[in-house]
Amino acid sequence: MVQVPQGAYDCDVLVIGGGIVGLSTAHAITRAAPGTRVTVLEKEPGPARHQTGRNSGVIHSGIYYRPGSLKARYAVQGAAEMVKFCAEYGIAHAVTGKLIVATEREELPRLHALVQRGRENGIPVRELGAAQIAEYEPEVHGLAAIHVGSTGVCDFTGVARQLAQTSGAEIRYGAQVVRVDRRVERGVAVLTAGGDVVRARVLVNCAGLYCDEVARLTGDEPGMRIVPFRGEYYELARPELVRGLVYPVPDPAFPFLGVHLTRGVDGSVHIGPNAVPALAREGYGWGVVRPRELADTVAWPGSWVIARRHWRYGAGELRRSVSKGAFLEAVRRLLPGVESGDLVRAPAGVRAQAVLRDGTLVDDFLIREGARAVHVLNAPSPAATASLPIGREVGNRVLGMLDSV
């Protein structure tokens, strides 16, 4: 094991993970405490190659999240900050607003509950009848809808690059962490696959899909495991059918928002995602299988609880994954005029979903501290939207830790 000599530090703070949360954390630390030496290790050859760069690009309003939760507070705050950040640095973005549309009567109570939740979270919401939907989306049909004006879209990969450039941190790409040696009285030393050793006073774990593994490498039991869910998308060959963003009414029992329509900053329209179990943490297709990672998922008791509890929901998602016709059927609930030939396969993403031992799907951002370490253990959507306040929260904890060691 690599050891940490007292005083022989390569940096003050070592961040593992070069996605938008890790880079925002580095940015926040150097802004709050100029002169703090920060190094970011990212195993890929560039930033934002996984969750950050493979999502729908939506700046979420915060309407879905429990009032008072980190997701609610940081999404609302982060959305406003993200628009300002993009404008300041010339990053592609647009505040488009979005519709949440009820297509079945049983969805109406949930739609009304979202109106109340939006108001509790300080989000302006307009309620629409069936005829008013066409004011925003002429091709979309529904029984009722709400319009959320603060939702937008942006280039999150561009945001991540800008954070990397302006953070003042040393960013090392192609640096996969394979070993961590933490000595409470000395610091943390990390060994990369390339044989480099980086010594720091404090470690920050923003490893996303691998955050639970990094926590255990550090010597902290996170009490959860990442269970990866693949989100599969289609691109709409007739983007003129959709003007902005259109969502179904989500089921509050799940952290997924359902198949929705998203017009991106480039004018293309993506449809999805559905959510199916991935057979690897980077399982962007059914053909990607990593036996060790799959075995870890299967061995976690919470995975079996999810399977028993939500098998009907999961069966529907699997059906839409293997059947384009089933996916088309789901899309037609919102967009009746879409045809099979309008759907073109697009790149998939993987959601790093934290699951507790009892099968609870962690529904809020989860940040925990250990000796000389801060672990970000659940930061799926809307983490990109909320990345600037998340980075400040993690940065504040790190700076407090630095003051005490």
Folded structure, characterized:
The protein has 405 residues and is an alpha+beta fold. It has eleven helices and 19 strands. The strands form three sheets. Strands 1, 2, 9, 10, 11, 12, 18 and 19 form an eight-stranded mixed β-sheet that branches. Strands 6-7-5-14-15-16-13-17 form an eight-stranded mixed β-sheet. A hairpin with a 4-residue loop joins strand 11 and strand 12. Helix 1 runs parallel beside helix 5, helix 1 packs across helix 11 and helix 9 packs across helix 10. The longest helix has 20 residues. The chain is globular, with a radius of gyration of 21 Å. The protein starts with 10 loop residues before the first strand and ends with a helix. The model has no long low-confidence stretch (mean pLDDT 95).
- Profile the largest sheet: 8 strands, mixed
Instruction: List unreliable stretches of 5+ residues.
Output: none
Element pattern in H and E: EHEEHEEHEHEEHEEEEHEEEEHHHHEEEH
Described by the principal axes of the CA atoms, the overall outline is: globular
* Binned strand content: 25-35%
* Number of helices in the DSSP assignment: 11
- Gap from first CA to last CA: 22 Å
- The structural class is alpha+beta
